[in-house]
Specification:
The chain has about 150 residues and is an alpha+beta fold. The protein contains 2 helices and 6 strands; from the N terminus they run H-E-E-H-E-E-E-E. The protein has a 6-stranded antiparallel β-sheet, covered by helices on one side.
Length: about 150
C-alpha cells in the first residue's frame, strides 16, 4: 500500500466524517483506511471482528457490502479531488452513493485480514462509477460496482 504521509484517503480528505464504515471521526465504526495504489485506484486491508459473523463462521454479507461501499468512496473521493470537483456549498461530501451492486463469489473468512481494491470505471462531474473487490487468499470473495452522484443538498 502507498502511504501518503501516513494519512489514509479518508483521514486526508474527510477527517471529520462520522460514517460507520470509513469515518475517521466515528470511534465505534469500522474506520476503514484506504490508500492510493501505485498501479492505479485505491487499496486497503480490513480485519473482521468476531461480531461480523454471518452465523455460520464467515464474514457477514452486510459488512462486506459496507466495506465495498466505503472503499469505493475512497476511489471516488480521490478522483473528485484529483479533478477539482469540490463539495457544493452546504454539502459535506461532493458525491454520495446512488447505487451499489454486490456479487458474493465465495465465502470470506471471519478470522483473517482481507484485501480491498477499487478502481474508477467512469467519471464525469455528475457521476462517478467505481469497481471494487474484496480478496482473500488471492481470490475475489466479493465484487461490486458503486455509482456515486453529485450531492446537492436541498
Amino acid at each position: 500500500m502507498t502511504d501518503t504521509g501516513g494519512l489514509s484517503v479518508q483521514e486526508r480528505l474527510f477527517p471529520e466524517l462520522a460514517c460507520f464504515g470509513c469515518g475517521p471521526a466515528n470511534d465505534k465504526g469500522l474506520r476503514l483506511r484506504s490508500y492510493p495504489d501505485p498501479a492505479g485506484g485505491v487499496v486497503a486491508s480490513f480485519t473482521p471482528w468476531p461480531e461480523h459473523d454471518n452465523g455460520v463462521g464467515y464474514l457477514n454479507g452486510g459488512i462486506i457490502a459496507t466495506v465495498l461501499d466505503c472503499h469505493s468512496a475512497a476511489a471516488v473521493m480521490s478522483e473528485a479531488d484529483r479533478q477539482g470537483w469540490r463539495a457544493a456549498p452546504g454539502a459535506l461530501l461532493p458525491y454520495v452513493t446512488a447505487g451499489l451492486s454486490v456479487r458474493y463469489l465465495r465465502p470470506a473468512p471471519l478470522d483473517a485480514t482481507v484485501e480491498l481494491r477499487g478502481t474508477i470505471a467512469s467519471a464525469s462531474e455528475a457521476e462517478i462509477v467505481a469497481d471494487v473487490e474484496l480478496i482473500w487468499d488471492g481470490k475475489p470473495r466479493a465484487a461490486g460496482s458503486a455509482r456515486w452522484r453529485r450531492w446537492r443538498p436541498r
